[in-house]
Design brief:
- This protein starts with a strand and ends in a 5-residue tail after the last helix.
- The chain is of the alpha/beta class.
Length: 276
């Protein structure tokens, strides 16, 4: 049996919990976005990419529920069906979502460029690696296998379907802490690319960090980012940063290449007795 790391004995971070799509894989978080558009289209409702991205990071059923509750979508639904979207409709769309997502998840499984550098730095610092995701276990079986081929094998993976509620609830983070045998929670940092990720970290009592460049909130491919004028990128970066900070993020970084320095900064704060 592994021994729990009681960090009262050591004032430093002991683990990092990553999100998956938009943070460690799938630059720009494209895999789920088009599928949400398609499942609503199948019901005769056109949603925008921005509407599809809005609740990203949540359990996919909850994500569909939030989109269906948007005022514009409610009006479109009433025009077509003369009633509001029901739980049965939500369940039908979620059921349709699963095979569509499974079909394309491999296409969007490439790890983000800075991940290997970040993992190397964390390994040198002796940090354990956990992860949370809005995907279910069937989807993650595929993604875990494909990520491993690229050198990414986190010590723990927890899906929204493994706990009673997904983000922004803290239960996936708590399950990670149990699997990693690390506590207290302020000796763990959560890194993600959505508002739901930020709130998950805050609600779990962890240091919560938003990553911008590869994020769902930015919503661009790497090639689009590289071709973007500097002033435009800064404008978009600042907008996403503000959104993360307003959600409660302790820090916002551009890419995972900044995690080594970030961990040192948090460790300095822990040594001073500060908590998340």
């Amino acid at each position: 049996m592994s021994k729990a790391t009681n960090n009262k004995e050591s004032n430093s971070l002991k683990a990092v919990i990553f999100d998956w799509a938009g943070t460690t894989v799938d630059f720009g978080c494209f895999a789920p976005t088009g599928v949400f558009v398609e499942v609503f289209r199948q019901k005769g409702i056109d949603i925008t990419i921005e509407e599809a991205r809005g609740p990203m990071g949540m359990h996919k059923r909850d994500h569909i529920r939030v989109i269906s509750a948007l005022p514009r979508i409610q009006e479109e639904w009433k025009k077509r069906y003369h009633r509001l979207c029901s739980e049965e409709d939500i369940e039908e769309m979620f059921t349709n979502f699963i095979p569509l997502q499974l079909q394309i998840i491999e296409k969007y499984s490439e790890t983000v460029p800075e991940l290997s550098e970040a993992l190397e730095a964390m390994q040198l610092k002796g940090l354990k690696i956990g992860s949370t995701t809005g995907y279910n276990n069937e989807m993650m079986e595929i993604l875990i296998r494909l990520a491993a081929r690229q050198g990414y094998q986190p010590d723990a993976v927890v899906c929204a379907t493994d706990v009673s509620a997904g983000r922004p609830a803290p239960w996936m983070a708590f399950k990670n802490a149990e699997l990693l045998q690390v506590y207290p929670m302020h000796h763990i940092v959560k890194i993600g690319d959505t508002v739901a990720d930020i709130r998950e970290g805050i609600n779990a009592g962890m240091w919560s960090v938003g990553v911008v460049q590869s994020s769902n909130e930015m919503g661009h491919t790497r090639d689009e980012i590289l071709a973007m004028p500097t002033a435009l990128y800064k404008e978009k970066f600042d907008k996403v940063k503000k959104k993360f900070l307003n959600a409660g993020a302790h820090y916002v970084i551009d890419t995972l290449a900044e995690t080594d320095k970030l961990i040192d900064t948090i460790n300095e704060r822990l040594l001073r007795g500060e908590k998340a």
